[in-house]
Amino acid sequence: MKRLILILMVLASPVWAVEPDEMLDDPALEARAREISKGLRCLVCRNENIDDSNADLARDLRIEVRERLLAGDSNEETMSFLVDRYGEYVLLKPTASGSNKVLYLAGPVMMVIAALGGVLYLRRRSRIPARGEEALSVDEAKRLDEIMKG
After folding, report:
1. Which of 2, 55, 61, 94 is 20 to 30 A from 112, alpha carbon to alpha carbon?
2. Is the pTM of this model over 0.90?
3. CB neighbourhood size of 68 (10 A)
4. Strand, helix or coil at 61?
5. How many CA atoms lie within 13 A of 106 on its CB side?
6. How many other C-beta atoms lie within 10 A of the C-beta of residue 104?
7. Are the C-beta atoms of 23 and 30 separated by less than 8 Å?
């Protein structure tokens, strides 16, 4: 039974989302198209590249990539066209420039701030005497002696 379920799961999942009617006749151009599309995010599936996605929008993006390559665009021109059209979100690995630098640096900066805050808190806490450590007054000491002798 487990084998049957495994076989059905393998058969149900597509091996390649790129359909035969999308493929280019020129193997070199097709290889370039595959290379480009592996770096592009499916806008429907989120963390899946358009090469592996079955979404209609991913198919449209794959066709757009191939049309740009047939028109003579370089890989960089094709990528910049798609980024201009859909924004940097279309890239699976966004560039570390401009406003993205803030996002890339925010995590480490927050970690350093938290570590410094923790160190300062611990240093300040170690300097404050605990409430139970205060010395007894003379009257309190006499009263304690009376109670202990009791």
Report:
1. 94
2. no
3. 19
4. helix
5. 6
6. 13
7. yes
Q: Long-range contacts of range 36-42, CB-CB < 8 Å, 24 or more positions apart?
A: 36/65, 36/69, 36/75, 36/78, 36/79, 37/61, 37/62, 37/65, 38/92, 39/79, 39/91, 39/92, 39/93, 40/65, 40/79, 40/82, 40/90, 40/91, 40/92, 41/89, 41/90, 41/91, 41/92
> pLDDT tens across 11-32, in order?
554 444 566 666 777 788 888 8
**Structural contact between residues 145 and 136, judged by C-beta atoms closer than 8 angstroms:** no
Q: Phi and psi dihedrals of 41, rounded to 5?
A: -85, 140
Count of positions (residues) in the chain: 150
**What pLDDT sits at residue 6?**
64
Structure-token pair, residue 142 = 């006499």
As given in the structure block, the two tokens for residue 16 are 């390649």
Tokens 């005497």, residue? 129
Structure tokens at 122: 């611990």
Per-residue pLDDT of 73-91, as tens digits, reads 899 999 999 999 988 888 8
Q: How confident is the model at residue 10 (pLDDT cuts 50, 70, 90)?
A: low
- Identify residue 79 by its one-letter amino acid code: M
